[in-house]
Amino acid sequence: MPPTVAVLHPGEMGAAMAAIAVRNTEQLSWLSTDRSQATTKRAAAAGLTAVSKLDDIVEADIVLSICPPAYAEAVASEIAGAGFSGLYVDANAISPQRAATIARKFDNFVDGAIVGPPPTNQRRNRFYLSGQADHVSTVAALFRESQVATIDLGTETGAASALKMAYGGYNKATWALAAVAHALAAQYGVTEHLLAEGARTTTSALSELDSLPSMVGRAWRWAPEMLEVADTMRAAGLPDDFGRAAAAVLEHWSGDKDDPGITAEEFFERLRHDQ
């Protein structure tokens, strides 16, 4: 018999994921008390069954938590405190440490990380899962043959959250940095040329792992340049945080000036040990 599932706080992503999972469940419910009209409309469109009591949620076989990360631990505490004994799936953008804290509240737990947009008939995403093998398989079955590709990361709690932090930290910081860069370009009337340079960029540093150590020999030059960037931003009335943060990171490799032989592992060790 298919499991019963409850989804917590179905925002845009939660509702989209639930709309797929509902095809492979006996019932997919959500707690409708004190929720906005927009959330109610999304949940209805996704085919979720509205319930008004927390007791109805904790009777489900699986609880899928997809909510703003600031609320993830409080939501988990509420569900655990209500006596939930099924499989709790935390799919929020939280640190591995917070995922471990939440995991200790439940006997059955899967750490999840969603990468990509809310899934639709035209858009796919990836749902990374880590935890006990049979629990991961149970969650994966909710999204079989769908626009959500489930990926098993093994049994270590926190692995999925670590991937989310690594990718999300890079991806979202890149968008924020682009906004600051364009604000500066607009102030100096060079937006057209910044757009042209962006269009010429065909690779992502995130996909160039083997090339990262080559940065070490140039870090001693790049760090002062980042401080110049920060000073430029400050003079333009813009946030200078990114430039100063980048300079601080580059300083970790300042002792490796023009060193062409550093390995990737040594490259990473500079960050781990030089705290």
Please tell me about this protein's structure:
With 275 residues, this protein is an alpha/beta fold. It contains eleven helices and eight strands. Strands 3-2-1-4-5-6-7-8 form an eight-stranded mixed beta sheet, with helices on both faces. Helix 5 links the parallel strand 5 and strand 6. The longest helix is centred in the middle third of the chain and has 30 residues. It starts with a strand and ends with a helix. The mean pLDDT is 92.
The count of DSSP E runs of length 2 or more, i.e. the number of strands, is: 8
The main β sheet shows up as: 8 strands, mixed
Shape: elongated
Continuous helix count: 11
Low-confidence regions: none
Query: What order do the strands of the largest sheet run in, or round the barrel if closed?
Result: 3-2-1-4-5-6-7-8
| Alpha-carbon distance between the two ends | 52 Å
The level of helicity is 40-55%
Q: Kindly provide the radius of gyration, computed on alpha-carbon positions and rounded to a whole number of angstroms.
A: 22 Å
SS strand fraction: 5-15%
